[in-house]
Specification:
With 350 residues, this protein is α+β, with helices and mostly antiparallel strands. Helix content is 28%, strand content 26%. About 3% of the residues have low confidence.
Length: 350
């Protein structure tokens, strides 16, 4: 017995909807992606634009005060300090295909018609077999896209000019180097406000009891909160998290959690937070050779902008007459914008 092309398309659409909305996967190589999670939650929309998403930023002020007596002359300022930061929006695609030949090998025949006439109803087994085949392909599509988007949001865009420049294009290792971020030169003295915080050589030494990293963070958070009211997240590589844990253990923090829990000795350490900001392990940083780094990101200042009506847009391309293949795809159009840099920081152990 066979499926019509129309029925196959309906089944594949249902499978795609399921995995995009609530699909469950069982894989041995799926890692947590906290940056992608935060970016997805923080995204907003923009209507359209020729090439770029623009935001207006300001970090310098002209107006000042002056005393006067009697008929003293006073001065008037003419503020002109607004700058425009521009960020490109990009089109991102991911898709899969299933060939008629694959389906035949799985015992599934496709009738190349769309009206469904002259066909016999299918057994339950055929529906199950087809769903399993498509589930595997669409699960691969979903996880593959999430891996790609997650890495894209971390990298600076130099790996591919057609993808969105990510976090490391804004939160750089050298904020005073000659570099345009959003079209604004961070190296110019007048634009010192357009720089992220950074310390790429925190000399923690061999004695965790010295609390070098903890003391550094105590001082650094004052500067990160100096301007505005940021909404911070802290994403760290495994070595950075380990150093924090060593310093806390060196000062006896086991007792804060309690040794005895339901008759068992629990020697683990609770998740670490600082100033109510959770320090979360991001496995992608290890993959990118950033295991000894930490990014403290102000999610009010750095966030995705997706074009209205063009986010997670599902496509069912028509089968070309010369190919016996079914296609499914998802696209998004958007960019990543930054409207303030001095509330975010990048840190590395020496």
């Amino acid at each position: 017995m066979s499926f019509t092309l129309q029925e196959l398309e309906n089944i594949s659409n249902a499978a795609l909807d399921y995995h995009m909305d609530r699909g469950q996967v069982f894989s041995s190589t799926i890692q947590a992606k906290p940056l992608l999670r935060e970016m997805t939650n923080a995204a907003s929309e923009f209507p359209s634009g020729k090439e770029n998403i623009t935001v207006r930023v300001k970090g310098k002020y002209t107006t000042t005060i002056e005393g006067f007596e009697g008929d003293d002359s006073v001065s008037y300022g003419n503020p002109a300090n607004i700058k425009q930061a521009s960020y490109p929006w990009k089109n991102i695609h991911w898709g899969i295909k299933v060939t008629m030949d694959e389906l035949k090998k799985d015992g599934i025949t496709i009738s190349d018609t769309t009206d469904g006439t002259g066909e016999t109803r299918h057994s339950d087994r055929e529906w199950t077999d087809l769903a399993n085949l498509l589930d595997d392909k669409i699960e691969d599509m979903k996880e593959g896209a999430e891996r790609g988007l997650n890495e894209m949001y971390w990298l600076d865009g130099s790996q591919d000019s057609k993808v969105i420049p990510g976090i490391t294009s804004f939160i750089v290792s050298n904020p005073t180097a000659a570099l345009n971020v959003g079209g604004i030169d961070q190296s110019v003295a007048a634009n010192s406000w357009w720089r992220n915080r950074a310390n790429m050589a925190i000399a923690v030494g061999s004695d965790p009891g010295a609390q070098v990293l903890v003391n550094f963070l105590q001082q650094e958070f004052r500067q990160l909160r100096r301007y505005g009211s940021p909404k911070h997240i802290a994403l760290c590589g495994s070595d950075f998290i380990s150093q924090l844990e060593k310093e806390l253990r060196a000062k006896g923090n086991y007792t804060l959690d309690g040794w005895d829990k339901k008759g068992k000795m629990d020697i683990s350490m609770a998740d670490i937070s600082f100033k109510n900001v959770g320090f979360e392990y991001d496995p992608t940083l290890d993959d990118l050779s950033f295991a000894d780094q930490c990014f403290i990101i102000d999610m009010k200042a750095i966030f995705p902008k997706n074009m209205e009506g063009e986010y997670m847009k599902k496509h069912s391309p028509a089968r070309p007459p010369e190919k016996y293949v079914i296609y499914r795809a998802v696209t998004m159009t958007g960019g990543l914008v930054c409207r303030q840099r001095n509330t975010s920081g990048r840190y590395k152990l020496a």
